[in-house]
Amino acid sequence: MTERTRESGAAIDVLQLHKYFGDNEVLQGIDFHVGNGQVVCVIGPSGSGKSTLLRCVNLLETPTSGKIFIEDTEITDPDVDVDAVRSRIGMVFQQFNLFPHMTVLKNLTVAQQKVKGRGKDEAVECARRNLAKVGLAEREDAYPAHLSGGQQQRIAIARALSMDPDMMLFDEPTSALDPELVGDVLGVMKDLASEGMTMMVVTHEMGFAREVGDKLVFMDGGVIVEEGDPVAVLGDPQHERTQSFLSKVL
Amino acid sequence: MAMSPRKRARVSRAVQYVVLAVLVVAVALVADWKTLGSTFLDPDLAREQFPDIISVALKNTILYTIGAFVFGLALGLVLALMRLSSVGPYRWLATTFIEFFRGVPALIVFIGFYFGLPIAFPGRQIPGGTFGVVVIALGLVGAAYMAETIRAGIQAVPKGQMEAARSLGMSHSRAMVTIIVPQAFRIILPPLTNELILLTKDSSLVYVVGLTFADYELTKFGREGLNDNANLTPLFLAALCYLLITVPLSIVVRRMEARSERAR
């Protein structure tokens, strides 16, 4: 295996990433790259390591070895300020993970105030701007339990956006949603992509990947099996494992 | 003639009721109600207990309990966070504390505390006099129990909450304070209220430390009344006063549990 060097202008650059859970090697030397303003979708069967890769990028999982760069910061450096790095990366979870004891507005302002040190007025203004962006401006006083899954996920996106992140990570953002609610969330993500947001999306939504993605990465068994232009990979997969996976999901 | 299962259940229930009724009537007939009444609820003696039983004894019981609860809750939270810490010595210290104070009777803690401290630190006093001694001794015991409750509450908060908070750039301690602990306390409100009920009763153990009349709580008050009058009326009234505190609290707990059951 050849040592790859860093590409310039990269938002996320992953070099020779290995991750073990006990004896189980879930990431077996990943080289992965997201350019500035790119939308990269990661697909693959469950257990392929795609979520683990995404979670390594904001250090929710600690890589066993390898290097990860966010823009020019090597976040795998033990001396790096993890909290500062994370505040630049928006994260959206499969299970939304809104704070149930806070109103929607408070969900969006709490980190702005406590992490970014913004004043209340500034935080509220930014929160309202992002709520309007996801089409839920009128729900700012609601508690998460009173919202549908699709609404909760859009709030979660707005919460991440309120930190003015340089890039967004999506961990199967529509997998926990009822089918009729998926469209709203994907719509918000499309808008984000068209605004030039750098995005890494672990997903099962092949339509989204084809339409919005700049690059598609297929993972299986802890390695990247195939990557390239989404239309090409989905339409004419080269690798046998990709073919068999796509024949099952498409 | 064979009985159907439902009929058999009905007959067996009827037999149980009859046996219970016979037992109650028998005990009621055998008991010496007259002496019982004059020993437990002598009207003149009962009247004499007021207002001191309320203005001194009940007031002090409530003060001691609330003080110990607040101190115990604060210390319990610290212990719970230490138990969950990644720093080994913190964990060991907290575990030792919790095991000790949960494993030793509160009465012995009181005695040890009251007589041990002046020997350990001659010339120094706990601020707040009797109130301070009681609050700290009772609080130490309460803290050990509450620490385990709080720890369970913190662990019951879904893991995704901490991940979401960290993803927004919050430090671990910031996330604990703003996101995790407030949710944990919602979960453990019913068991914490139960702890308050237990502390109310444990405050009776203060009687082992020397008290002046102004510091009397319900049990001490009742025992003194018993000694002075050779009559159980003051103690019986004290018991009723405890119920005045604990029954409303248990109703509150039951309501909260019912509500969280519905919310599930």
Automatic annotation (TrEMBL), chain A:
<keyword id="KW-1003">Cell membrane</keyword>
<keyword id="KW-0813">Transport</keyword>
<dbReference type="InterPro" id="IPR003439">
    <property type="entry name" value="ABC_transporter-like_ATP-bd"/>
</dbReference>
<dbReference type="Pfam" id="PF00005">
    <property type="entry name" value="ABC_tran"/>
</dbReference>
<dbReference type="InterPro" id="IPR050086">
    <property type="entry name" value="MetN_ABC_transporter-like"/>
</dbReference>
<dbReference type="GO" id="GO:0005524">
    <property type="term" value="F:ATP binding"/>
</dbReference>
<keyword id="KW-0029">Amino-acid transport</keyword>
<dbReference type="InterPro" id="IPR027417">
    <property type="entry name" value="P-loop_NTPase"/>
</dbReference>
<feature type="domain" description="ABC transporter">
    <location>
        <begin position="12"/>
        <end position="246"/>
    </location>
</feature>
<dbReference type="InterPro" id="IPR017871">
    <property type="entry name" value="ABC_transporter-like_CS"/>
</dbReference>
<dbReference type="InterPro" id="IPR030679">
    <property type="entry name" value="ABC_ATPase_HisP-typ"/>
</dbReference>
<keyword id="KW-0067">ATP-binding</keyword>
<protein>
    <submittedName>
        <fullName>Amino acid ABC transporter ATP-binding protein</fullName>
    </submittedName>
</protein>
<dbReference type="InterPro" id="IPR003593">
    <property type="entry name" value="AAA+_ATPase"/>
</dbReference>
<keyword id="KW-0547">Nucleotide-binding</keyword>
<comment type="similarity">
    <text>Belongs to the ABC transporter superfamily.</text>
</comment>
<keyword id="KW-0472">Membrane</keyword>
UniProtKB/TrEMBL annotation, chain B:
<dbReference type="InterPro" id="IPR043429">
    <property type="entry name" value="ArtM/GltK/GlnP/TcyL/YhdX-like"/>
</dbReference>
<feature type="transmembrane region" description="Helical">
    <location>
        <begin position="61"/>
        <end position="81"/>
    </location>
</feature>
<feature type="transmembrane region" description="Helical">
    <location>
        <begin position="168"/>
        <end position="189"/>
    </location>
</feature>
<comment type="similarity">
    <text>Belongs to the binding-protein-dependent transport system permease family.</text>
</comment>
<dbReference type="Pfam" id="PF00528">
    <property type="entry name" value="BPD_transp_1"/>
</dbReference>
<keyword id="KW-0472">Membrane</keyword>
<keyword id="KW-1003">Cell membrane</keyword>
<feature type="transmembrane region" description="Helical">
    <location>
        <begin position="93"/>
        <end position="117"/>
    </location>
</feature>
<keyword id="KW-1133">Transmembrane helix</keyword>
<keyword id="KW-0812">Transmembrane</keyword>
<dbReference type="InterPro" id="IPR035906">
    <property type="entry name" value="MetI-like_sf"/>
</dbReference>
<keyword id="KW-0813">Transport</keyword>
<feature type="transmembrane region" description="Helical">
    <location>
        <begin position="129"/>
        <end position="147"/>
    </location>
</feature>
<keyword id="KW-0029">Amino-acid transport</keyword>
<dbReference type="InterPro" id="IPR010065">
    <property type="entry name" value="AA_ABC_transptr_permease_3TM"/>
</dbReference>
<feature type="transmembrane region" description="Helical">
    <location>
        <begin position="235"/>
        <end position="254"/>
    </location>
</feature>
<feature type="domain" description="ABC transmembrane type-1">
    <location>
        <begin position="58"/>
        <end position="253"/>
    </location>
</feature>
<dbReference type="InterPro" id="IPR000515">
    <property type="entry name" value="MetI-like"/>
</dbReference>
<protein>
    <submittedName>
        <fullName>Amino acid ABC transporter permease</fullName>
    </submittedName>
</protein>
